[in-house]
Amino acid sequence: MRNNLIVAFLLVTTVVFAQEKELSQTQKDSIKNLNAAVINLQNVAITPLQQSPERQPEIKGTVLFSGKKNEVLKLSSFTANLTTNNAREVFSRVPGVTVWENDGSGIQINIGVRGLSPNRSWELNTRQNGYDISSDVFGYPEAYYNPPLEAVETIELVRGGASLQFGPQFGGMINYVLKREQKKAFTFETQNTLGSYNLMSSYNAIGGKINKFSYYAYNHSRSADGWRENSKYKVRNSHLFMEYAFTKDTKLSAEYTSMDYKMQQAGGLTDQQFKDNPRQSLRERNWLGTPWNLFSLNFDTKISNKLTSNTKLFGLIGERNSVGFTATPNLADAIKPSTNDYANRRVDRDFYKNFGIENRNIFSYTIGKNINNLAFGVRYYKANTRRQQEGTGTTRSDFNLETLSKYPRDLNFNTENIALFAENQFKLTDNFSVIPGVRYEYISSTGNGRFGISSGNDIPFQNNKITRNQPLFGLGMEYKIGKTNIYGNITQAFRPVLFSDITPPAVTDVIDPNLKDASGYNADLGYRGTIKNYLNFDFSLFYLSYNNRIGGVRQFVNNDPNQGTFLYRTNLGETVNKGIEGFVNLNVTRFLEIENTIGNIDIFSTVSFIDSRYTDFKINSATGTAPNVVISERNLSGNRVENAPRYIHNFGISWSKNNFSSTLQYKTSGKIYTDANNTTAPSANGVTGLLDGYRVLDLSAEYKFLKNYNIRSGINNLTNETYTTRRAGGYPGPGILPGEGRTFFISIGAKL
């Protein structure tokens, strides 16, 4: 791996010098003069290509992006299955993204970067229009809600150096920017889809701008029976946005988002069951529902020519409700002869309430002849989670949350957070910037309630107040060479112990009571940009250090291998994720200057090589049976990190001419271990064991006609590959979770 990194660095360096060499001194002087002439227009983003992903300008609004690895996915610039939020297609142009495919509903988008866990995108700071949308940013940062991608204009990702302006997360930040209408007084958009397994979807939106007033509203409803047995779902998303512009530079807006869904969970499979029939399901009584409500009040103003400010007041009220038979797949959910009925199901419920206020500012000032920029801000956030688990439910089969007695586990968790941050872009020359930064996090967490019931008596849970005062530092740089630039940064990261870490949702997991917070840092070094009108690229090296990482170790029940296994969740020492990430998009017909004849043909590739290993990982192992149990200590240094494939590659070709466009893309991902022991043989319950890599082919197309109308269609998993992306220890069902087989959709829409 080290040799690969050296070779990649030499290749990037060679391209840099080659790019410099093709500019004459006169051209360099002209570019320098041009940069000086437009220096006051730095807040205007000019994108030289329509190819996606694009990149953020140095400054956008009140956010400083200089020196950071970032991507902007403009969803209208490529074809993909947006109806079911197909993350495999949408993120194919972003290198190093791991996607977990729990089901085909697309209700939850599960992505991770650089070998980090994709579980409900919890290693990322997940936002919509710039504000948080996860359950509890520091207590339970899982994204049970994602907007329907048919309503999304762009997806913004920032990796590595995102921690200073957006929080301490290891993965960075992802922001879903919703559509708006700023030109006409009234527009109407509709997109209606039919597909395999009774898929029906309808997206309808209105929007407009009347003088100083702007508005946008949509409703998205979707339902299907699902590719697997027992996987039907029904989801609704609604959104309302209103804005009033007092002046050109001062605006006040408000928005509200509501989501509700009911989803049947097909559960996991053992390896043999998966091999026999991946579409089968042994659970018809398992359900999940998550009503979600988001609120936001946004104020933008330009205080002076040098100072721009944004303030967001936001909040969330939501729930996570599940009911089902949650045993591992080697245990049947069968009618008991003694009662002539099914077993009682388990009911788990969470109730989330949080709010926050966040202020961001950009201050521009001059040192010498160069304009420098200071990004600074403050944030206050407070969240409450009530967690009720292990309730005894009914023996019914529908989505019924009734319990027959009080919840054995009934807990309250509270989080309070104050953050201050500042990053400064020092322009040492017209082309070279250095960006130091600092963030201070105050995090306070408390918990209390009932942890269980023993002999009819409550087992109290009292988590003393835990307070953290965590400073984070970072340093970035960027050097421009024409329309390309070299960028780099190193930034500290931090992750406190989550509420979910100490109260296992997985029915097979056991938790270490002495968990510690995780800390570490991200580093990037890359070269990116555009060449003429046909090449768009970004190649980089990354290094991620993650100390006290929490994960699962396979252990024996009662120290006896004959009694089965379970996952013991504990601090696993330090992990280091390092590798290469690359993206290139070549417009072949522009390069050959034949686009006017045959249209635009783009070929794209995203490649990532990830070496993700434990560097210090001591565990106690038990072998033998009582009374001859032997306890020994092992250091698993060198083991691969679970759920981190060694490579993730995407290759695609797109063709567009006149009103028709289509894309064929191929994804291949390497094998993964599903526990820190690097267990190869699958366990009898399907919870641990090596998972093979997979290859999936997707095809999508769009035809626009009569100016305002479109027909979209696609086939996902064109070759009907049998594959899986993950194993689960609990929800959405212990065992292997199969990826979907071949599915088809066709959609007709209009924007009037």
TrEMBL record:
Cellular component, GO annotation: cell outer membrane
The keyword Transport appears for this protein: yes
Membrane topology: Multi-pass membrane protein
InterPro entries from the UniProt entry: Beta-barrel_TonB, Beta-barrel_TonB_sf, Plug_dom, Plug_dom_sf, TonB-dep_rcpt-like
One of the Pfam families matching this protein, by short name: TonB_dep_Rec_b-barrel
Segments forming domain TonB-dependent receptor plug: 83-169
Keywords attached to this entry: Cell outer membrane, Membrane, Signal, TonB box, Transmembrane, Transmembrane beta strand, Transport
GO biological process: siderophore-iron import into cell
Keyword Chloroplast: no
Subcellular location(s) of the protein: Cell outer membrane
Domain TonB-dependent receptor-like beta-barrel intervals: 249-718
Signal peptide positions on this chain: 1-18
Family: Belongs to the TonB-dependent receptor family.
PANTHER family xref list: FE(3+) DICITRATE TRANSPORT PROTEIN FECA (PTHR30442:SF0), IRON III DICITRATE TRANSPORT PROTEIN FECA (PTHR30442)
The protein's name in its UniProt record: Fe(3+) dicitrate transport protein
Species per Swiss-Prot/TrEMBL record: Flavobacterium xanthum
